[in-house]
Amino acid sequence: MQQGTLMRKVKSKSWKKQRYFKLQEDCMTIWYQSKRTGKTESAFSISDVETVREGHQSEVLQSVAEEFPPERCFTIVFYGRRGNLDLVAGSAEEAQCWVQGLRQLIEPRSFPLTSALVSRTWIRDWFQKADKNKDGRMNFKEVQRLLKMMNVDMNEDHALRLFQDADKSESGTLEGEEFVLFYKALTQREEVLSLFQEFSEDGKKLTLLELVDFLREEQLEDEGTEELAMELIDKYEPSETARARHVLSADGFLMYLCSLEGSIFNPQHRALWQDMSQPLCHYFISSSHNTYLIEDQIRGHSSIEGYIRALKRGCRCLEVDCWDGPNGEPMVYHGHTFTSKIPFREVVSTLGKTFWGNSSSPLPSMGTSPPSSHPQRVSLSCLRVWRPWRHWVSQGASLSPTLQELKHKILLKGKKIGRLKDTLDGPGDEAPDVSDDDNGAEAEEERRRAKVKGTQHGSALQKDKETLAQALSDCVIYCKNVPFRGFQEARSHSRPSEISSLSEAKARKLIRDEGNEFVRHNAWRLTRIYPSGMRTDSSNYSPQEMWNVGCQIVALNFQTAGTEMDLCDGLFSQNGCCGYVLKPPFMRDEETLFNPSDPSSWEGPGPITLTIQVISGQQLPKVANSKEGAIIDPLVRVEIYGVPADQAHQETKYIENNGFNPHWDETLQFQIHVPELALIRFVVEDYDKTSRNDFVGQFTLAFANIKPGYRHIHLLSKDGTSIPPSSLFVHIRITE
C-alpha cells in the first residue's frame, strides 16, 4: 500500500477537502492531515474498521457521482455509530491500492489467533495503546496500565514476575520480542493446555492418530477424520518441522480451536447448504421495515444508507414508501410524518448498484402508495434500470415459482389490477384490492383515485391515468397485495401469487386462536408482518413467535440494535447469508397438524437435551462509557428461543474483577422439543447488584448450526459487529 496519498475527503456535495492519508509503519494506524495546514487532522486504528466499500456505495458519494467516477471512490465503514469516511483517490489504481490493502489488513480479524501474523498484529496494537511516552519500550508502570486496559485485575507481585521473566535484557523495560513473550505468558490458556495433554501421550505434541482420536471422541467428527486431521495440521501448526512430521503442537492446537473450524457455528452451514428449488413461500426471508429510515419513525432521517446497510446485512425484503414529491419527482419517506425525504430514483439506483454485485437471490421489494399522474411516469422511467433482472411473466408461467426460477430477479409487492392469471392472459379489468397495511396509505390512495375519477377531467387525460395505473400494476407479478379476511376465505379465493400484510397484534391473535391454520396458510402463501404503529422509537417485536407459525416476511427495524435483531442475524447467518432459510418439512405441508402452542401436535422423535459447559472467556471488552480503571464482573446467560415450551434461560455465577480470562466451569442443560425452530443466544453481561446488568457481548445461532464438542464462541457487539478477540470457550453435547 502506498503511503502519504493525497485524496479528497467528501462530506457533502459542497464539502470536498484534500487530505494526505498515510498508513503508519505499525500497519495498524492510519492518520490523515490537511494539505493546506499540514496539521494531523485525525487518526484511526485498523481494528476500528468494519469493511471497505468500492464505488458510489454511500449517500455522500452518490451525490458526487457525476463529478467523480466510481472506480476512484471508496468508503471506509467503522464499527458502531461512528460516521463513514468517504474518499476519492487521484486515480483508479490508487483507489484499488488502498481498498485491497485495507481489506487484507482487516480480513483476518474475524477469527483471531489463526496465524502468527494476526497474533503479532494484535499484540502490536496493545503495545501501542499502553506505550504512553511512545518510546517503543514499556516499563512496569505502563504494563500495569495495560492490564487495566485489557480488563485484568492481576496481583501486582504476579504481574511483576511475568514482567521480569520477559525482560531478557534486564533493562527494566520490554521491547520487541520481550513484549511478545510477556503477552504470551499473560494469555496462557491453562484449560486448553489441560485438554491438549489429556490426548497427548508426551504432553508436548499430538500425533496424527492422537488428533484423530480427539476429533472423533470430543468433536464428534465421523467422516474423513484422518484427512481433516492432516488439513488442520497443515493449516494451523506454526512449526515447519512439526508439520513435516504430521504432529500438532500446543500452539497449533489453540490456533485450531480459535479458528473457523473450531467455532460453535458449523462451517459447512456458512456456505449455501439448503435446497434452493422450493417455492418462495417455503422460506423465511430476511426482511426490513421502513428500510429508508435510520432513526425513529416520526422525525427520523431517511437515507439510502439504510438500504445499503440492510443489503450488506443480508436483508432481502426492502420497503420503499413512494409518495408524490415536488416537480413531479416521486419521493421516498414515511408518509404523514416529519421524516426527511429521498428521491425515488436514488433508491432505485442504489438497489441496482448495491444488490446485484453481492447476491443472485431474488429481492422482494415492498412498495406502497404509488404516486399519481406525472410522478408515475418518472417511477416507471426509474424502474427501467431494473429491466435486465425483472421477472417478466409469459404464457404458461408458474403461479408458484421456485426460488431457483426467481434467481437474479427483483419482485415488487403492491396493488395490482386483476390477478396474475389476467396478466398471463391479457389486461385485467378487476378493481384493485386495498391492503390492510400499517399506515392506511394504500386505502387513502384508493379514496384519492375515486375522487379523481369523479371530477370533470377530459376523457383523454383519464385514459392516460388509467393506462399508467395499468403499467404500474403490470410491474407487480408474484406479490399482489390483498387484504386478509380469514384463513377460510384465503383458501377458497386467494392465490399463491398473493400476499397479505398483518400487524404484529393481529398476527399474535391469529397465533393464539388459530395457530395450526396459520401454519397451513403459510405453507402455500406469503405473509408479511410489520411493527405496531405505536413503535415510533423504531423498537422491534420478537420475530420468533412469527417464525413459529411459518410467516416468511417478518419485517424488523434494522436500525435498532437489540435481542430481536440478534435473533434475525442469528437465523440468517447460515446458508451463505443469502437472506433465505428453508422452513422445516412440517411447515411446508399444507395439511400439517403442527401448532407451536400445542405440544400434542408435535410429531418429532421427542425432546433432545442440550448440555453446555461454559468453561472460560477471553479478553472480554469493557462496558461502553465505563469509568477509567473499571473492570467487569462477567457472567454468561444462555437463552433458548423457539416454540413456547422451549423458551428458557439459565446463567452462570459472575466472576469478580476479571474480563480478561474469567473461568466459570459451569454446566447448563436444556430440553428442546422442536429443535428445527430453536435459536440459541449466548450473552455476556457485567454483573451489577444495584442496577440492571450491562451488556458486554453476544452470539446467536440456529440450533441446526451448532457444532458439538469443544468450541469457541466469537462474540458480537450490540449492533452485531465482531469484537475480536473476545470469545467464550464451551463444551457442547446434544443427546436424544
UniProtKB/TrEMBL annotation:
GO terms for biological process: intracellular signal transduction; lipid catabolic process. PROSITE patterns: C2, EF_HAND_1, EF_HAND_2, PH_DOMAIN, PIPLC_X_DOMAIN, PIPLC_Y_DOMAIN. Residues 427-444 have a biased composition (Acidic residues). The keyword Nucleus applies. GO terms for molecular function: calcium ion binding; phosphatidylinositol-4,5-bisphosphate phospholipase C activity. Keywords: Calcium, Cytoplasm, Endoplasmic reticulum, Hydrolase, Lipid degradation, Lipid metabolism, Membrane, Metal-binding, Nucleus, Repeat, Transducer. This is Phosphoinositide phospholipase C. The lineage of its organism: Eukaryota, Metazoa, Chordata, Craniata, Vertebrata. The gene is Plcd4.
